[in-house]
Amino acid sequence: MPNKIHNSFYITLITILTLLAMFWLPKLKIGGKDMRRVNLLSDVQLRDSSGNIIAEAMVDSMVGTVEIATDTIGEEENLGIAFDQIEEETEEDPTIAESTPTPSQEPTSKQKAENKPTQQQDSSPADSAPAVTSVNEGDTAAYHPAAIKPIDYSAVSTGEVPDIEDFGNSMAHFKAALSQAGSRPVRIAFFGDSFIEGDILTSDLREMLQAQYGGKGVGWVDISCVSERFRLTAKTNNSGWEKHHANDRAGHKGAMQGLNGAYFICKGKASFNVTTSKGHAATADKATIFYVPEGISFKGKINGAEAQPAVSDNGGAMATAEFHGQSIGKFAFDASGNGRVFGVALDGSTGISLDNYSMRGSNGWYTANTADETLAAYARLRPYDLFIFEYGLNIANKKQTDYSPYTSRFKKVIRKIKAHFPNASILILGSGDRDERTPDGFATMKGVKELMAAQRQMAADEGVAFWNLFLAMGGDGSIARMQKKGQANLDYTHINAAGGKVVAKALFQALTK
Fold it and tell me: Fewer CB within 10 A of the end CB, N or C, for the chain?
């Protein structure tokens, strides 16, 4: 009888190779809950300072996540809570007006009968700006819903970059600031979810703006975050910190966070270092630590040189420790004492500084929890000229069409920013495309357009600017087309670095037009 022991070897080998290959499958979510990745090597792979397996985080960034909804998802989960953080709830403000239901994207029967166009044609800000009225009720302005025309989807066929719709002349300050970039820093705060995680999109936008208007440095860097091992422009290491993020399940206090939605506590000794790379942002003129002045001190090192004293500035609820040098590509510091640190910024003395405030799984509400005194300190120590908000991946849901409850809460974020940065421009990016599988292939998920229209209505109600990211990506089914070009992940939700460059170019053109 022939010996077939080698067959057992081949079966075992095939099984092992198959299990190893399954590691590269998109991460699976069912009903908003993460399923464990198939990873035979999990016990021996390197982990970051938060205990996350580095290889898994990198794969998540490249191939994304597949979400499988369940019939048990409730109303709050439809609004994105199940897919992001459990955050501190703020008291509901009775003076905040509810936004109107999302404008329909379909023509009415009357419009069909009269053969009237239902889509907004390209227009100047004066043509599209609604008459937004407000009345003072205590310290809160209550905005009446603005009447705006439906979105013009026909512009997609031209391939032109959509214009920014400025509903309240909000962008005037940023336009003026650009003309002053040669003599002062022009600061941009770019908030978003995993769409911009790891400096995707924002790194290319920063590079384009710095190439045209000057500027150096990668801007804001967290002491620790989920993308610390695969951020495109900065590699970081840290030790000794107690870490708190807005999407933590427990332990985080919104009143203690910075604009980044995070804070890091030193209890005795802690350290941090960052090495930057990429274009104009590869070096900086100064490195600044942002912290709460409550018994903590720092020794900073620039490019590996001897430690030097910091130039300090106290803004009240927040202070800065600033270190100056030439062509700073590496910065490290040791912290001593007991205190709270928000993060580090690497900037030039003049020109563009763009901060990436990404929060995986976020719906953006956490920003409203930032303490007023902290925001006042930011306004003094790091005054921004432009706030950009990109959210949508964790909010759009194929079972939902009315997103006014979501936008009603996000208006708190806009109004809080306005209260502390009254001169800053504010730009809302509508949701990008997110596709689902249909019998005819991949198509835009139901709910994306409705969410985008609600975000646009919110911008109009609040008198700020809006940019149609969905149209800039190419409209219906665009994320699937980008995936075929190698510009998006297999989850048909997230762009990758190549896709970020495409979107950044379009946004750059819109901002500088």
Answer: N
What distance in Å separates the CA atoms of residue 420 and residue 374, rounded to the nearest whole number?
10
In a domain, 21, yes or no: yes
Is residue 159 left, alpha or beta, with left meaning phi > 0 and alpha meaning psi from -120 to 50? Answer: left
Torsion sign (Cα): 282, 206, 395, 64: negative
Q: Measuring CA to CA, how many Å separate 2 from each of 5, 11, 249, 283, 344? A: 9, 18, 60, 68, 69
DSSP, res 32:
T
By the 8 A CB rule, do 245 and 224 touch?
no
Amino acid at 342: F
Handedness of CA 193, 464, 444, 482 (dihedral sign): negative
For the chain, 513 residues long, give each residue's pLDDT as a single digit of tens: 566 677 787 788 888 888 778 777 776 655 545 566 777 776 656 544 444 555 655 555 455 555 443 332 333 334 443 333 323 333 333 333 333 333 333 333 333 333 333 333 333 333 344 433 333 333 344 456 788 888 888 767 667 899 999 999 999 999 999 999 999 999 999 999 999 999 999 999 999 999 999 999 999 999 999 888 889 899 999 999 999 999 887 899 999 999 999 999 999 999 999 999 877 789 999 999 999 998 899 999 999 998 888 899 999 999 999 999 989 999 999 999 999 999 999 999 999 999 999 999 999 999 999 999 999 999 999 999 999 999 998 899 888 999 999 999 999 999 999 999 999 999 999 999 999 888 888 899 999 999 999 999 999 999 999 999 999 999 999 999 999 999 999 999 999 999 999 999 999 999 999
> What is the number of domains present in the chain?
1
- The kind and range of the H/E element at 376 are helix 372-381
Q: Order of strands, edge to edge, in the sheet holding 27-30?
A: 33-34, 27-30, 65-68
CB neighbour burial string for 466-485, b if at least 16 within 10 angstroms, e if fewer: bbbbbbbbbbbbbbbbbbee
CA nearest neighbour of 163 among 213, 214, 120: 120
Round to whole Å and give the CA distance between 121 and 103.
16
Contact partners, residue 117, CB within 8 Å, separation at least 6: none
CB 406, CB 363: distance < 8 Å? yes
Query: Would 25 be classed as within a structural domain?
Result: yes
| Residue 53 located in a structural domain | yes
Whole domain around residue 41: which residue ranges? 5-65
Q: Is residue 16 part of a domain?
A: yes
